Each structure stands twice: as C-alpha cells, then as structure tokens.
Amino acid sequence: xxxxxxxxxxxxxxxxxESRVFEALKLLSTAIIVLxxxxxxxxxxxxxxxxxxxxxxxxxxxxxxxxxxxxxxAVLADPEMYTYMFNTVVVAIGTIVTVVVVSLIAGYxxxxxxxxxxxxxxxxxxxxxxxxxxxxxxxxxxIWRSIGLLDTRIGLIIALSALSMPFAVWLMWKYIMTIPExxxxxxxxxxxxxxxxxxxxxxxxxRPAIIAAALFAFALAWNDFTxxxxxxxxxxxxxxxPGVLRAMGQAQFLPDAHLMAISLxxxxxxxxxAYFMQSYLLKGFQVRAL
Amino acid sequence: xxxxxxxxIRSRRTYIPWDSxxxxxxxxxxxxxxxPVVVLYVLIAVFPIAFAFWASLHxxxxxxxxxxxxxxxxxxxxxxxxxxxxxxxxGVVYMVGSTLIQLAVGLWMALVLxxxxxxxxxxxxxxxxxxxxxTIIVSLMALRVFDPAGGVFQVLGxxxxxxxxxxxPLGSRTWxxxxxxxxxxxxxxxxxxxxxxxxxRAIPNRFYEAAKVCGANRWQxxxxxxxxxxxxxxxxxxxxxxxxxxxxxxxxWQLTEGGPGDATTTLPVLAYKTVYTDQAYGxxxxxxxxxxxxLLVSAIAYFKLFNPSEEVETTT
Amino acid sequence: xxxxxxQNLTKVYEESGxxxxxxxxxxxxxxxxxxxxxxxxxxxxxxxxxxxxxGLNTPTSGTIHFGERxxxxxxxxxxxxxxxxxxIALYPHMSVQENMAYGLKIAGFSRKERIARVEExxxxxxxxxxxxxxxxxxxGGQQQRVALGRSLVRDPEVFLFDEPMSxxxxxxxxxxxxxxxxxxxxxxxxxxxxxxxxxxxxxxSDRVAVINDGELEQVAPPKEIYDEPESKFVSQFIGQxxxxxxxxxxxAVNGRGTLVVGDYEYEVSDGLKGWSxxxxxxxxxxxxxTVSDDAEAGIPATHLLDEPLGDATHSFFxxxxxxVIVVTDPDFEGNGGEYGLVFQSDYIRLFDVDSGVRIA
Lengths: 290, 316, 360
Known about the structure:
CATH topology of the largest domain in chain B: MetI-like fold
CATH superfamily of the largest domain in chain B: MetI-like
Largest interface: A-B, 107 and 102 residues
Largest sheet of chain B: 2 strands, antiparallel
Structural class of chain A: mainly alpha
Helix content of chain A: over 70%
Oligomer: heterotrimer
Distance between the termini of chain A: 31 Å
Strand order of the largest sheet of chain B: 1-2
Number of helices of chain A: 13
CATH class of the largest domain in chain A: Mainly Alpha
CATH class of the largest domain in chain B: Mainly Alpha
Distance between the termini of chain B: 35 Å
C-alpha cells in the first residue's frame, strides 16, 4: 500500500527527527488540552473562594488573601438550594438504579435467551437515541399531569431512565456476550437455577459494564435540565439545574460568587467519578455498545 | 398438550404450567426480560409521540383544558411562518458547526490522550469531567466569564477589539451564535473523545510494530491502521452528536433564551417558547412532531448512506 | 451409584433452514465406576452427546437414563452431575475456596461443612496452599485441579469431561492424567470423557468409543481399538503416527485368499475367499513396516526425510501409493536412497473400499 512512497519519516524527515517533532507536538497538544480543559474549572474554583463584592469589579486571576473567603459556601445552607440539590441526588440515584437493573435483565435476555423478533427489538431500541427531551417533554407534560406524575421525582426518573436505555441495554447485551457461557453452565451443573446463576456468576462479572451504564445514567440525570424544567414546574420538587436558573431570575440577592461555590460542590461528584472510574468507563465503552 | 409428561418430572416447584402455555418457556422468559424496556419506551416515546400528534390537530391553550379540533391547520401554519424556517436554519447552523468542531477536537484529544505517558489518568479525568459536569454549571461559568462586569473573557475579547468593553457578547447578534457553538463544543467534544479513546485502546500494539517493521512513518500508521479502525465509531458518534446538537435546548435556553431577538432560537427553543410564551400547546406539539419526523428521516438517510449499523451489529 | 444408559440418542440442529444431524442414533452404556472416552475429530458430535447427557442440550429423540431414572427431560440442575469444561470455567470473581464451595452453598451445606469438604478435596488434589488465591493467579494445570476439586466436593452421580485438557501443553497433560484418574476412582461413578486427543483416550479409559459424523464407529477397550479396529476410520484415528493405507486386491490361489499389493503377495486369513477379485484397502501401522536396503525386497520407495525422535525415527517415503510413514530404528538415516518396504503380514488389516468396514 505504501510501497511507492519514498522511505523515511513524515515530511521527508528521518525517523529520529520525526519522533522528536511528534513528541514536541504531543507536548504542545497536552498543554493546550490542560489549559482549555482545566481553565474554566480553575476559574470556577477561584471565584468560589473570592469575596462576592469584588467579583464584578475586576478580573482577579488568583484569590488574593485579602479577598479570599469561604463565606460563599454559606449558600449551601439556603433551604431552597438544599432542596434542589437533594432532589438532584434522589433523581440521580433513582435513575442509576432503574437503568442498571432494567438494562442488566434485558441485556441478559438478549445475550442468552432466544425469542422471536429479538434482533428487531435491538434495532428498534436504537431509535431511543432520537428521543429529544424537548420533543418528548412537551406532550409528556400533559400525560404526566393527567396521571399524577407531574411534579414528582418518579416521573422524572422514568423519563430519564428511558433516555438511557438504548445505550445501557446495548452495552449490557454486548458485554454479557463476552462472558463465556460455560461459567453459567458450570453454575447450573453445581445446581444453581438460571436466576441464581445470573445473580452469582453473570452479574458480578458485569461490573465494568454496570459502572459504565451507571456513569452514563448519572451523567444524564446530573446534567438534565430540559425534562426537569418541563416535568417539575414547581419550585419544591425541582432539581438543581432548573432551580438555580429560576432562582437567578427571581432572587433579589444571588451573587455570581455564590453560584460558583454551589457549582463547585455539584462538580465534585463527577470529577471524582471521572478520576476513579475511568478505566471501567473505557472498558465498558470498548465493547462497541452503540 | 405435553402437560401430562411434564408434570411428573418437574412437580417439585411448578408454579407456572410452562408446558401448557402456547409459547416455550425460553420465549416467555426472554420476552419477560425485555418487557420493562418496552414499557419504558411505550410510556416515554410511543405515548408522547402519539399524544403529540393528536394534540397537534387541536387548538389548545397551554393552561386551559379545552381542546378545539382544527385538523391539520397547525401544520399549515408551521410551514407558513417565517420563524419556523428561520429556527430550522439556525438549528442546522448550530448542529453542523458544533458537530464539526466537536469531531475535530474530540478526535484530536483522544489521539493525544492515547499517546501521553505521564499524568494520563489525571488528564483523562479532567477531560471526562467536562462531559459529566452539569450543563447548568457550564452555563453559569460562561455567563460569568462573558459578563461585562468583571468577566475575564469579556475583558480579553474587548482587549482584542472583538466587542466593546461594556457589551455583553452573549447578548450580541454577531457573537451569540458563535459563542454558543464554542461553549457547547467545550462540553461535548469529550463525548467523541470517550468513544474514540475506548476504540483506540482496543487496537493491539502489534499492528503498529508490524507497520514499523515495514518502515511506515507515523502519518502512514495513522492513515493505514488507526483511521480504518476508527471510521465505524466516528460515523456513529457523528450521527449521535448531530441528533443531540439539533435537539439541544438546555444550554441555549440557559445562556440566551433564544435571544437576542431570535438570533439563537433553534427549533427546540421555538417549541418551548410556543408552549410557555405563546401558550399555544397544540401548535407547539405540531412543531415537536415535525422535529421528530425531521430527525427520523435524517437518521434513516444517514444509515442508508453510511451504514454505521455494520459497526453496530458486528457481533450480533 | 447408577450407570449411564444412552439409547438411540439423536440431535438435529436447525441452521438457516438446513437440518444438521449432530448426533445420529447413538446407543452407549457406561457402567458404574467405568471410565469411557468418547473420541473423534472436531465437529463429530461428541460434545453434543455429552451436553445431552449433562442436560445442557435437549435431545431431538432418544433417551438418557441414570440407573433406572429417566433424566431425558430433567434440567441440568437436578441431575447431580459434575462437568469439567474445555475452558475450565472457574468463576473468575470467586477465590479458589469459593469456587469449590459454590455447589455446596447452593445445596445448603453449612459453612463449616463446606470448608471441611473443600479442604479434604484440596488435600487430595494438592492445592491446599492455593485456596485463598483467585483463579487468574493460577496456572492452567492448577486451574484444572481446582475445577476437578469443584466436582469432587459435590460427590456427583455422573462425571463428565468436555475436552478439559485441550488447552494445556503436552507435559501438563501427562501430569494431570493420573490426577483425573485418581479423582474419578475416588468418586467411583460412571465417567464420560470427551476428547479429540486419541492419546488421552488410550491412556485413561476402560473403554474407548470412537465417534465420527455423529455415529459411533466402535466401542471397545483401548488395546482392542488399537489392534482390532472395526473400520478404516478407527484404524486411522487411533495411533500415532497413524495407520498407512495401500490399494490392494484379493486373489484366490489354491482355495486360499491371497492379498496382492503392487507386485507383492501376502498370505491372509481364510475368511477372504468370498472377496476374490475385489479391490480392498490395506491398512498397516507404521511400526509393522520394515525398511529393506534392497529395493527389490518390497514395495519400491524413495526416501524423503527422517524425523528422529530419540527412541525411534519417523521416516517418510514416496511410493506408488503416495507418501508412506514408517517407524524406523533410532539410528536410521535414509539419505534419499531407494528402499523396499516389507510388510509384517500378521498385522495387515483389510477394509472395504467403499464403506471402510473391516474385512479382515
């Protein structure tokens, strides 16, 4: 395929200098990624520790000792903000549990059992990627209202779980197919029922896929604004994203530094997950789960 | 029919008369495993879309329960009003612009992350955080740094004469859309990075070693080994990103609410405004149905053209 | 403990509209305490047969009995069998101890009893010091011992092996064979061992069942299978290097059947009269062919190459019947010369040209 090309490295360089150029480019790229990736987060952190009166006056790059403060975090004690965050946590946990349980069982069925229309079912599942929160949310608003799920966290959990399904089910399906069937058969030989074999042998081995699906569901729930905005219209039940936006519109006193402080708190869980669980995440994504 | 023979064998724990059911036990259990997913889909997709279609045939005020049948009139209105076509056009600009930037940046980040040796874990975590961080926080940060009152990017941009020192760039007709595209790309490029990085890690090193033995340089290795391995996944993520960006509502609403004027009003924003600002619930549903059909048609066309499903179904 | 009776077992698969007969009317009985090996090439239906006995596959027709009990429709969980898998199938997320105790845990044994039983089995298998490890930390041979232990603790009614050693190297195989025999003796139940390796079949079994294309070719003790194969397939499949074949013809001379191969005649048994004038396939193990320096003394052969093994040499010759392998003296060096191949006529076996069935 490349026999016609002149020998040697790129741009006619020797392999050696090609390597040096490559290393330099890599270093430069890394620097840019760090700068662009970290910078906004750094900015959020430093503003969170800056006295709010000074934020709007001038740009400060470092939280100087004279304007350094922890007072911004007092906003966490605000009952309204506390409600929003609590609701977000409940919705996230509810979504994760629903998504993991439902997708594990469905993935197992797709991987191990044969039933009519199985392949078509899997394909139809992919249509789920087309579900736009706004397209679904507008009609769902009336439907939820008529069956009493409007303004309930359950209603939001159901909606967000459905949105995670195409990814989670495909992931579980493909992942379970990589587990040798003999493991399960060994359990059956040992006297385990199908359910017991699933529980004792398949589920523990699905850990990377479970974590990947859980992280994906978490990202969706933690991120969600549109569904919560439409399906949780009242202030008491709503989650962080729409809550804080409404608070900004209504509140007399809500300085940006306070918003940065609360944002920082909300950023910590994703940051920790991203650091400690990235290997599971990549392993999960490797099975071509789309 | 086979009930008599089955009974004696499994008498110990027979609660369900499997043998007298019309389908085999495996079929029943198999369908049972996917039933929860089906229920979720029916509840969250089939019902709402059917409901949206039904509602779109009525004239409904958002807050009043009265439905007046008007047939297809909402649809005639949809295709007639200029805001629809304008929103569609802006939505396409937003979708294409952000998807292209995300593809380039996401792919580049994946290649770099795959090759660096030191601090890989930390850097990967930082990059992943951008995706996991709630959109509202990205918006809050963006609003802060572009704020004329002490926003660092506003000051920097003013220094380069991009806008005046007192102007809010997110409120400017010239800058609102490009900035929305850039801010969205900061967050969502990582989506492409995650998927391509996972794929890159799965390429066995021996391919590169074999290529090196043949005297390939880095560009040739990228072109002949890396890229062919990535094309499938790239086609899929580009499709997904396009769909997601076309549907994007949250970040636009949070940053500009579709303004200034309608400079950043895309279809999702238009639909939302129609419900809550214009209080025209039936008309909003008509827009939603049109959006859904638009997505469906483009997705089918995309699958027909590029067939990313080959990638999807390699192991079925 | 009961014996295993397989009667008229047939398994048909449907694959994209085609019917594939994997197992065709197999009937086989394995007595209590007997070790029977089912051997055959890949795809011959041996694993399917075993999986039917285990209850992992459902037979299309035929029955399987454990003693008096008809187990044909009984799920695998209720058959009380032990099964060793080809890929070993230890639970990767459980320690060796937990792996071995899992079956007991399901059966509801107390923790104390589980530990006692596992330790007893581990002692017998010499893996007592491995109990705390995870399967991934063990070598292939040790993993196989753990898998054996997992079966041992449960005291099964029937012991099944599905090519358990096919992924191990030759030295480990030789090391594990006596362990397997020890364990099966210990349990003392009927054992069905499936393999494609004729050496395993020959060394461990009380009886060997050779299966080809879903049909049983012959069931007999190893020595008999080797010496008196009932078909060309069995003769070729069992023994290493495998039986060499030549085209021959039977001629009646003075009322006695005489075998003619090339220019040479061999006396064979009386029973051949009826075959006078027919073509036959002549099979002879390479050990029973002698190489003569005199090219006139036997079938003319051109030496191709030698494979010295130390205790013997495998020498390859080109003849009018194609390539022939002969087991020669360890010091033999052919040097590409011309030789004559002489048959030891006592060991000649004749097979029907079309059906491959043994004639004499």
